[in-house]
Amino acid sequence: MSDGHGPSPETPPGWAAEQPPPYGPSQASPWTAPGSAPGAPPGAGPEAPFQQGPHAPYPPHPQQPPGAPGYAPGYGYGIPQAPRPGIIPLRPLRLGDILDGAIKLVRSNPKAVLGLSAVAALLASLPVAVGQAFVLGSMRSTLRDPYADPYAASDPTGVYGTFAAQYGGALVSMAVSFVVVTVLTGVLTRILGRAVFGGSITAGEAWRLTRGRLPALFGMVGLLVAVLLVPLVAFAAILVALYATGSVSGGPLAAILLVMVLLYLPYLVFFRTKFGLAAPAVVLEGMGPVAALRRSWQLVSGDFWRVFGIMLLTSLIVGVVASILQVPFTFVGTFLGLLGDGAGAAIGATVLITIGGTVGAMISYPIEAGVSGLLYADRRMRSEAFDLVLQSAAVEQQRQGWVHASADDLWRPTHTPAP
């Protein structure tokens, strides 16, 4: 339960479901480590491990063959596995943990995650579908009469109308996507922050907890877009100047364009990766736009290629899955738009293309947001020993038998143990 008044329906077997209720009123913080007396000095009791030296929660141990007594996959013989109250084990994550956790994010709260993703995908797909249906209608008349003049006054869907529909729909879709995907990322990140502890949260509560962070989230995304677009604007200005003055044309101009593209790709990869964890910092840590970008830069430093590889692999996976889901609807819609007749064909093509785009995007949006949030958690666990905080909270969750709403506060930097 998201409000913390009852057992969580997502609690794994052997955790809270088998624990007795709290033995009295909650203390000031429901995440006080068990055995710590209220008011005890820092470092006393079970919180003492947070004051130890460099993070080394898993000491080296000789590896034993799988199947041996006490064997923990990936960690060896006699080393206990980390607790897993929610969608991930509370330890530094491997690639499989991140991808599995992103899928479990969808499965643990399907109504909120898929429902919100479907709304966002529908709003982003509809302008493109309308534009494509308009273009297909124009192509249908061309197929029927290949010698027709596209500039004829009798043709209301001539070249200019087709161009405006095709690219205008794409531009409108990009603008809508900027808004809805930004909002969706914030809401899904809030759901993920609770799902790590095995807690469930409704779409309404996730929105209520996220809406105060939307100005900072939009500011962060706007800054990121500006950083990524500055070289493109400069390159475009150079090309226009060269073409206008007649300095270069034809082949040399194309060669310059190719060089600019090759120079831009490393720039895009570098900054997109370095700032890829800024959204979770805005939502979960309550940071402003500039501070969140700086925070992401800090977390990615030292593990750039791993973060980039996981992001790239995720994009490839969700791209393939989305295409597989989208292609049948797009194919039938295109077929109907080209060979059909009248307004019914245009409406049918628009509906089918919209459904295809919505189905594909509603799967890709939460997976990409989940991977980004879990990469953020992984980098904090690796660089700040944040898994100690999560494990201590999980122990208290097991004792009390429910996930308190104040679990969201654990993501703030004040809860990071001192190195």
Give a brief outline of the structure.
This protein has a domain of 277 residues.
Q: How does this structure look, described?
A:
By secondary structure, the protein is mostly helical. The protein has a domain at 103-379. 63% of the residues lie in helices and 1% in strands. It contains 11 helices and 2 strands; from the N terminus they run E-E-H-H-H-H-H-H-H-H-H-H-H. It has a two-stranded antiparallel sheet with strand order 1-2. Helix 3 packs across helix 7. It is globular. The two termini are 34 Å apart. The model is unreliable at 1-79 and 150-157 (pLDDT under 50). Residues 45-55 have a biased composition (Low complexity). It comes from Nonomuraea roseoviolacea subsp. carminata.
